[in-house]
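Subject: for your reference before the review

Hello V.,

The reviewers asked for a structural picture of the protein, and I figured it would be easier to keep everything in one thread rather than splitting it across files. Below is the amino acid sequence we used in the manuscript, unchanged from the supplementary table.
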Amino acid sequence: MTQPAASPAEVAQLRAALARSQQQVADMAAAQDEFLRAVSHDLRAPLRHVTSYGTLVREVLADLPPEVAQGAEVQEALGFLATMDQSARRMGLMIDGLLALVRASRAPLHPQPVPLADAIARARAALPPDGAGRAVEWRVAAQLPTLQADPALLQVLLVQLLGNALKFTRPVSQPCICVQADAAPAGQVAFTVQDNGVGFDPARAGSLFGVFQRLHRETEFDGVGTGLALCRAIAQRHGAHISATAVPGGGCTVRVEWPQVPAV
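And here is what came back from the structure prediction:
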């Protein structure tokens, strides 16, 4: 049955509703821009003061007579200053992580077919050198899918995943990292990043992709708990799904299901 054509009044109402929706989106974007400016500038100023004045206090303490500077009270004060400086720097990294999350959520998407093998190679090249000088065994499958993805955001996701695999295999004498294709439901492709590192308690897997969630002590592994949250945000923007499984002391496997490249 043919639907009757919309009347001029109904068309006008629809256009007005669309205009209101577009204005709301613009207002939200402006609010996010203001948030970014506040986080990147206003919140960093107090941190700079904390770290700068901590340095000045240490210099004042260093100028004390040796018999005073070596006293228990001064040494205790220096310990407090070290903790204060470490906490301020950690908060700076947390702000960086939040900014990365916001930018990844707002960056314009420019999806195109990206061969995963090529993207993995670029991500490995972008990883910082391992200070331990370890011989890491990389097993990258010859046959990996092509993803319909924004190349820049996919690079960020892969650098995070491979970087995590490197980090959590540091205590292992023979670290091994595998990247391979995996079975996926119709209309999707999947790949996994698997390591033989320290793993984690599977009972806590639900919080793994949350912001500032850490499953290991900071004294064991660096980081502030934003990397996997960033990976999830990037995956969700592409309509993909990311999950992780692990065994304590038995390594971790991160699995990514990605919408398949449409056939041309």
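For the response letter, the relevant points are probably these. The first strand starts at residue 112 and ends at 115. The beta strands are 112-115, 137-140, 146-149, 176-182, 188-195, 241-246, 252-259.

Happy to draft the paragraph if you're swamped.

O.
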